[in-house]
Write a structure and sequence with these properties.
Blueprint: H1 5-8, H2 10-35, H3 38-41, H4 56-63, H5 67-98, H6 104-116, H7 123-132, H8 139-163, H9 167-175, H10 180-191, H11 193-209, H12 212-217, H13 227-230, E1 235-236, E2 239-240, H14 242-262, H15 264-274
Antiparallel strand pairs: 1-2
Helix pairs in contact: 2-14, 4-14, 5-8, 5-11, 6-8, 8-11, 8-15, 9-10, 11-15
Length: about 280
């Protein structure tokens, strides 16, 4: 006898629930620690829920030196990298998805290789190039590095997304008098909104959370640091101020969470459509 549908899917649901719990528990612990008094954070018997709540850690984080400045630096670098990646990837993905030219497959192979390469292994070459070109301690250098990190993924996803749009739509617009660029801008581009949002969110999270390059490329000009580097500054004579660190980390995570919740549907459909063809 065949088991009921709900019973057959029960192991998958249990596995999914356990996966969600394992992934979200560190985030939950970070957020609750930010609200715990210092005596409870250092307790030998930590509680799953805070016994009492406090906002002192958030006040210390916001009042810390450089909070507003480093927040601005992170926003400028992140938005600059995402905008550059979208601009370049739109042209590259359109050329790969719509045009036939020699070396197209080799180009995509190079893009996939760049996507698979561990960026941590390139820190020393990037540092040497930045030093020799007098580009250390500058925010545009970080912007270019994050642009290079997010560009391959953006090209791959947008290429798959453009491939799902019937070319006949653009051809009809060209018959009506539009140029090839005009047909793309008026017909295909509005349909790319979910794909653009999905890749933008990925680029935003990558650049917003990146620590290693920001730590190695910004050495002398401390005012050019970004928020991930700033988070490592909550130290005092007795060690790390975990309450302020967790409060600052919670504030740091809120923009990405808010953007994802606002764009959740578009992001999900964008990733799904981008993976259909390729």
């Amino acid at each position: 006898m065949t088991p009921p549908r709900a019973l057959r899917h029960l192991p998958l649901r249990i596995a999914a629930t356990l996966t969600v719990i394992v992934c979200l528990f560190p985030v939950y612990w970070m957020a609750t620690t930010a609200f715990k008094p210092s005596r409870d954070i250092q307790s030998d018997h930590p509680q799953l829920l805070p016994r009492s709540w406090t906002l002192d850690h958030f006040r210390r984080a916001i009042d810390a030196d450089g909070f507003g400045l480093f927040w601005r630096n992170s926003v400028l670098v992140t938005l600059g990298a995402v905008a550059l990646a979208l601009l370049v990837a739109l042209g590259a993905s359109f050329a790969v998805a719509r045009m036939r030219w020699r070396g197209r497959r080799q180009f995509m192979l190079m893009v996939f290789v760049a996507q698979m390469a561990p960026w941590e292994s390139l820190i020393i070459p990037v540092y040497i190039i930045s030093r020799d070109t007098d580009m250390l301690d500058r925010l545009p250098t970080l912007t270019l590095v994050y642009f290079m990190m997010t560009l391959p993924f953006t090209i791959v996803v947008l290429r798959g997304f453009i491939a799902t749009i019937p070319p006949e739509l653009e051809e009809s617009a060209q018959v009506d008098g539009c140029t090839r660029f005009g047909a793309f801008r008026h017909v295909a581009f509005p349909l790319l909104a979910p794909g653009l949002m999905a890749t933008s969110l990925f680029g935003y999270i990558t650049a917003w959370n990146e620590f290693a390059y920001a730590n190695f490329l910004i050495i002398k000009q401390q005012d050019h640091r970004t928020l991930p580097v700033w988070l490592s500054s909550f130290h005092n004579t007795f060690g790390t101020d975990w309450g302020a660190t967790m409060a600052a980390s919670t504030l740091f995570a809120l923009p990405a969470l808010a953007i994802f919740l606002l764009l959740q549907r578009q992001v999900t459909s964008g990733f799904a459509a981008g993976a259909v063809k390729g």
